[in-house]
Amino acid sequence: MRTVPLAVLFALALLSGCLGPGAGTEQPAPAPTTAADGTTTTPLGPAWSFTDTAGATITRDGNLGHPTVLFFMATWCSTCRSNTPRLATIQDEFAAQGLKSYSLSIEPNDDKADLEDWKARYDNPWPHGNDAGLANAKLFGVTSQSSIVVLDGHGNPVKQWGYGGASESDLRKAVQDAFARA
Fold this sequence. Notes:
- The termini are far apart.
- The protein is an alpha+beta fold and 182 residues long.
């Protein structure tokens, strides 16, 4: 009888998208700065931007004041497909409070038609775009598809998950934390 090494089974599970959501990484809130006149301000997070499939430029600055979810995905990714309903549930739940969600493909071969098809197939009403040159992924240290970054209203990361994404309850908690950092 032949045995399959555990490392091979793990690699197959990872590639097939069978592993569940990860634990995520908490990101501490940046310390406010105090000016000479006594006013305090919260530093802004990384200046991210992308062009969506409709041709609109989406930026950190255009989202200031709104907690934001960035979903780094690829249209061929089975784990991305399993994360999409969770993201839709959270976006629907918090949309009236101002949550913004975006899907950014980190697959260079995903074109506008691929992203529009994904958006329609999985009923994602939020903007989708290609993360050209992985510029945004690099800003947040994203190294794989099906990664999620939750930002507060200042654009600072609250929590981040790598490959496997987030459970619905963990994602909800991170979004609530993002709103609390207002």
